[in-house]
Amino acid sequence: MKRALFLGCTVPVRARNYEMAARQTAALLGIEFIDIPGFTCCGFPVKSNAYTFSQMMSLRNLALAEEKDLEIVVLCSACTSMLAEANHKFRKSAQYRDHVNALLRKINRSYSGTVRIKHFSRMLLEDVGIDTLRKHITFDLGNISLMPHYGCHYLKPSEIHGEFDSPEDPKTLDMLIEVTGAKTVDMMGRKHCCGGALLASDNRLTYRLAAEKLHMASTSNADALCLVCPFCGVVYDDNQKLIENELEQIYQIPVLYYPQILGLAFGLDPKHLGFKLNKVKTKTFLSKLYGDMADE
Amino acid sequence: MNSKDIIDLDRSNLSFAVEVSTEPGGENIFRCFACGTCTAGCPIARTDSRFQPSAIIRMVILGLREQVLWHDAIWLCAGCYTCQERCPQGVNIADLMMALRNIATREGYAPEPYHVQLNLLLEKGCLYEIDDFDNKKRVKADLPEIHIDARELRILQEKLLEELD
Ligand code: SF4
Ligand code: SF4
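YS: structure for the whole thing
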């Protein structure tokens, strides 16, 4: 199975642990990721101030994948919904398609709308399947509990994600966690917004929003938060210390990307899954699985 | 209530809602029947009293163009789509906030970080530049190097701006 891997802006610089774990687990499952050199940002960051341009950025990326006849797999939830939304709009209107292609011609490209876009987690569920995942599990995570964090764009707007998961009562991340043997902590706030979109313009608002979730997680019996989006990671992991300072609280809750969990269950070495790059230390978490490790 | 808080309808511009309805994302604004479902579930409205999506929609329909476009409120939406999923009238509220921001940008009211981001994308093709140092870190983590070229993006933006003229 071949897929174009779309990294976006955040993953390659600020969530290399997510990328490492995604590449490692995919390789073990026999998925070949193709890196397309021409990919840029999906356009999401400028949807508010340069809407038409932001759509063109997405569609140009899709054109590149179409040239190679590849489906796109995405690690970032915001990129997933941005690319899927641009694709959805493109397919809906012939007049818009003509306009887009007139512009793409200026850079010697064209797009006909054939590319399919999936979040990495969705690919695991739909193209690999839970049964195949189960066959690769060699290490039982039964003594850890995780709080799933779905975030927003993994599920919404549901119109563009089609028949995947319920935005009001989502299950897919719970399913993916449970196949590893780990327990899920079921509580309010699993669909909370991390507030990441406001981090550049009003970071204190982001902090107040994110604190709700961190508080829930740290007062539950969860050993870590489990994420599927690098921007949620920037908020909950990279900014956790700042949020603690701002709100005069202590959370110290590890923030893990789902493929890091899956990788552990596949028996991969935490070193190859980027655990050292996690900002909130994962030592206590890992020692729960492996006992005390001398070199961590 | 203080009299200065009362909306002055003499300053209303009733064509504003029509203008919004022709902007991508704003198409369904007239469907709103003011039920308040969007505000009830909005994580930002819960956290910051400056923001209520249903109030903004009402202000647009009442034609309070300046108050909407100049005020911080439209920039506080986190784009989480909770409201959009739940609106009984299919108003597409998150997209509508995006439409208002684009109009405000054309009038010169976009907050500085948004300009910075656009310039970065046109210059580098991504928000966080990946320099040699980053690529070294990537190679060390057994990840491929990344070199992004924004030339095609600049051409697209230039053509879009020409179309506007
Ligand atoms: S939920 Fe929809 S109909 Fe109700 S107030 Fe909000 S936009 Fe209007
Ligand atoms: S999309 Fe914006 S207005 Fe709607 S619920 Fe989320 S933050 Fe509130």
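YS: worth flagging: Residues B 38, 42-44, 53, 77-83, 93-94, 97 surround iron/sulfur cluster (ligand 2) (CB under 6 Å).
IM: good catch. Also Chain A has a mean pLDDT of 95.
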